[in-house]
């Protein structure tokens, strides 16, 4: 199914998604006007297929790379909500996290999966840094996160919303459908308010996160 993603603050950067790939990028009005032709093109017998429109507040961007995959997925414990009474809800770092993993190594896999979900909720579509544990590697792979090169000079400290944010290259037709939408008026506001303003994250054409 074709899906047209459009954000109110990015009328010039709507994205038409076909399966796991980007079919077109351009002004919303142009893509919407061409949609019937796109539906007919290349389909057996010229039979139109249903298209879906997703409209979002804010701005649509290529998504973020978080360079702190090892720190956030192997050296941070992300508590299960059911553990809130014992551990709270905030990520646990340092020696306390290490103690939790030593006491129960099985915690690492579940924590890494929850950490990946938190990354997705911050518009992360790619990660960097060498992951040494199979559990963290599997969590990244199953989520469909891309892996990139770790910058030589890291923004710091490790965070789900690093400063500065690392934005991926611009979206292009034929590339994997991987992007995020942030509920801010412009990129300056995104820099100021951070990646927690994410309202939607798409990876390989799948809506893997949306704010409630």
> In total, how many beta strands?
11
Q: What's the helix count?
A: 7
| Second-tier CATH architecture of the largest domain | Roll
Question: What's the pLDDT, averaged over the residues?
Answer: 91
Q: What is the structural class?
A: alpha/beta
Which regions contain 5 or more consecutive residues with pLDDT less than 50?
38-48
CATH topology of the largest domain: Urease, subunit C, domain 1
For the largest sheet, list the strands in their spatial order: 3-2-1-4
Number of domains: 2
Task: Describe the global form.
Answer: elongated
List the helices and strands and how they pair.
Layout: E1 2-7, E2 14-18, E3 21-26, H1 28-40, E4 51-56, E5 59-61, E6 64-66, H2 69-73, H3 84-87, H4 94-103, H5 107-120, E7 124-127, H6 134-143, E8 146-147, E9 179-182, H7 187-193, E10 198-203, E11 206-210
Parallel strand pairs: 1-4, 6-7, 7-8
Antiparallel strand pairs: 1-2, 2-3, 5-9, 9-10, 10-11
Structural account:
This protein is α/β, with parallel strands linked by helices and 212 residues long. The chain folds into two domains: 100 residues, Urease, subunit C, domain 1 (Roll), CATH 2.30.40.10; 84 residues, no CATH class. It is built from seven helices and eleven strands. The chain has a four-stranded mixed sheet with strand order 3-2-1-4, covered by helices on one side. A four-stranded antiparallel sheet has the order 5-9-10-11, with no helix packed on it. A three-stranded parallel sheet has the order 6-7-8, with no helix packed on it. Strand 2 and strand 3 form a beta hairpin. The radius of gyration is 19 Å and the shape is elongated. About 5% of the residues have low confidence.
């Amino acid at each position: 199914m074709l899906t047209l993603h459009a954000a109110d603050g990015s009328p010039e950067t709507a994205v038409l998604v076909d399966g796991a790939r980007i079919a077109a990028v351009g002004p919303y009005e142009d893509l919407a006007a061409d949609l019937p032709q796109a539906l007919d093109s290349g389909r057996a017998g010229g039979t139109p297929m249903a298209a879906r429109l997703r409209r979002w507040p804010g701005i649509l961007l290529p998504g973020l790379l978080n360079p702190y995959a090892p720190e956030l997925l192997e050296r941070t414990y992300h508590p299960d909500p059911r553990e809130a009474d014992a551990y709270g809800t905030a990520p646990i770092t340092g020696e306390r996290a290490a103690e939790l993993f030593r006491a129960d190594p099985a915690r690492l896999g579940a924590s890494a999966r929850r950490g990946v979900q938190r990354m997705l909720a911050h518009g992360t579509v790619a990660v960097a840094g060498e992951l040494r544990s199979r559990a963290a590697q599997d969590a990244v792979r199953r989520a469909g996160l891309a892996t990139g090169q770790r910058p030589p000079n890291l923004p710091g400290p490790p965070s789900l919303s690093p400063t500065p944010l690392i934005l991926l290259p611009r979206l292009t037709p034929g590339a994997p459908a991987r992007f995020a939408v942030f509920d801010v008026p412009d990129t300056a506001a995104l820099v100021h308010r951070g990646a927690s303003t994410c309202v939607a994250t798409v990876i390989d054409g799948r809506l893997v996160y949306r704010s409630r």
